[in-house]
Design brief:
355 residues, four-stranded mixed β-sheet, 30% helix, globular, disordered C terminus
């Protein structure tokens, strides 16, 4: 597939897993009691790549599928969304990953994965299309690709190649504990590569897991700060998100919608903010632009939870602008919760001083 990377539409490369989510057609029952399932393509890095394209950005996906009907289906999904698929390869022996999702009545979900191992876990360094990585403006990844070899080494090689080429690194750990040997192994593996990233997005639940502290406390959140970071964002569901840069910090309110399925909401958020970052190089120094981008990203996440599945629920820019417009009376660029005009100066690692 041909692709075009220009200064007006920079390339964002997403690396990692793509799989089939089987989402129950009845909410609030166990997997065993569900009468049927909706087959939905998913996997956080792939969701992000598709979210970028739905919003008019330029994306590519690097990953490995099984040489089976599900793998061919996923390739077709990416192509239909306009995602560059030059970095995809197939495994003749391992199958494409599957996940069965239990939907609670509030739209929250639990995952049961069928891997052992799946094709995405067998990605090797020799499978990587380094030329695609090196010409990206942003290289995005999660943590599932860090769980086992050979994919872990492929992940590290791709990340280091991107860093050496001056590519901006984006990290959403997207914690999935059932896939890790233990919670401690997950925490250690996720934090091992923490200091490479330029941008990190974490949910409030992930802050609690990684720090073992209260995610609403600022000192707890800022224990995750490192000197290479340009932006740290904590998502708080429908409450919105909190942001921290070297120059300012604050909160952007979210949107209240009817929640059907929260799968993919964080990926829709990440895709939106990456599109803004790729096109606005000064966003980390312009709080107004950053807040606008985060408001847009919050709206993307909100729309995504109103439908079942991740990729099928991803919004277009017009969908997002319509939601923002309908909530305009309650939206302010600098709401009361924001810390406007305060400058965050890093002190001794993770501490910040307001000046």
């Amino acid at each position: 597939m041909a692709y075009l990377c220009t200064s007006s539409n920079p390339l964002i490369v997403s690396f990692g897993e793509m799989l089939i989510d089987f989402v129950p057609d009845v909410v609030g029952v166990s997997l065993a009691d569900s009468p049927g399932f909706l087959k939905a393509p998913g996997g956080a890095p792939a969701n992000v790549a598709c979210a970028i394209r739905k919003l008019g950005g330029n994306s590519a996906f690097i990953g490995k599928f099984g040489d089976d009907e599900f793998g061919k289906m996923l390739l077709d999904v990416l192509k239909k969304h306009g995602v560059n698929t030059d970095g995809i390869c197939f495994d003749s022996y391992a199958k494409t990953a599957l996940a069965f999702v239990t939907l609670k009545k509030n739209g929250e979900r639990e995952f049961t994965f069928y891997t052992n191992p799946s094709a995405d876990m067998l990605m090797k360094e020799s499978d990587l299309k380094m030329s695609l990585i090196k010409q990206a403006k942003i290289f995005h990844y999660g943590s599932i690709s860090l769980i086992s070899e050979p994919c872990r080494s492929a992940h590290m090689a791709a990340m280091k190649a991107a860093k050496e080429a001056g590519v901006f690194l984006s990290y959403d750990p997207n914690v999935r504990l059932p896939l890790w040997p233990s919670p401690d192994a997950a925490r250690e593996g996720i934090l091992k590569i923490w200091n490479y990233a330029d941008f990190i997005k974490v949910s409030d639940d992930e802050v609690a897991f990684l720090t073992q502290g209260d995610p609403q406390r600022e000192d707890v959140v800022l224990s995750l700060w490192h000197d290479n970071l340009k932006l740290l964002v904590v998502t708080d569901g429908e409450k919105g998100c909190r942001y921290f840069t070297k120059h300012f910090k604050g909160k952007v309110n979210g949107f209240s919608v009817k929640t059907v399925d929260t799968t993919g909401a964080g990926d829709a958020f990440v895709g939106a903010i990456l599109v803004s970052m790729a096109k606005q190089t000064n966003i980390f120094h312009d709080e107004k632009k950053l807040r606008e981008a985060l408001l847009f990203a919050n709206a993307c996440g909100a729309i995504c939870v109103t439908k079942k599945g991740a990729i099928p629920a991803l919004p277009t820019s017009s969908d997002v602008l319509e939601l923002i417009k309908s909530n305009a009376k309650g939206v302010s660029l600098f709401p009361r919760e924001s810390i406007r005009g305060n400058r965050c100066v890093p002190l001794s690692g993770s501490q910040f001083l307001e000046t």
